[in-house]
């Protein structure tokens, strides 16, 4: 399977990583996806952030826990009609950004 990174949310973060445990694990995940493996946990549809639905019209989402509490978010996407699906790496983020994206921070009570 082909694997591509989102130009806005994944690629700049990945390219900015120094060689180390996070980048090494992401490389292993990319290799596994190319070998048609599913990596990580499936996220239930009602937990998919609107951000991903609006930007990519996705219905299936996966998350992978990485070293140092980072997360990789990906989906399978068909870019052109009649084409085989590709693994689309949506975002690579630290735990704080992940919590914000998925709405896990508690709101202050009034």
From TrEMBL:
Q: Which domain of life is it from?
A: Archaea
Query: Under which name does UniProt file this protein?
Result: Plasmid stabilization system
């Amino acid at each position: 399977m082909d694997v591509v990174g989102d130009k806005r949310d994944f690629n700049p973060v990945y390219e900015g990583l120094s060689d180390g445990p996070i980048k090494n694990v992401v490389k292993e995940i990319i290799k596994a996806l190319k070998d048609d493996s599913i990596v990580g946990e499936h996220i239930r549809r009602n937990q998919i952030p609107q951000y991903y639905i609006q930007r990519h019209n996705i219905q299936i989402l996966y998350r992978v826990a990485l070293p140092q509490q980072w997360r990789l978010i990906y989906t399978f996407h068909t870019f052109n009609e009649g084409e085989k699906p590709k693994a689309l790496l949506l975002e690579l983020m630290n735990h704080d950004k992940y919590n914000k994206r998925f709405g896990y921070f508690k709101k202050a009570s009034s």
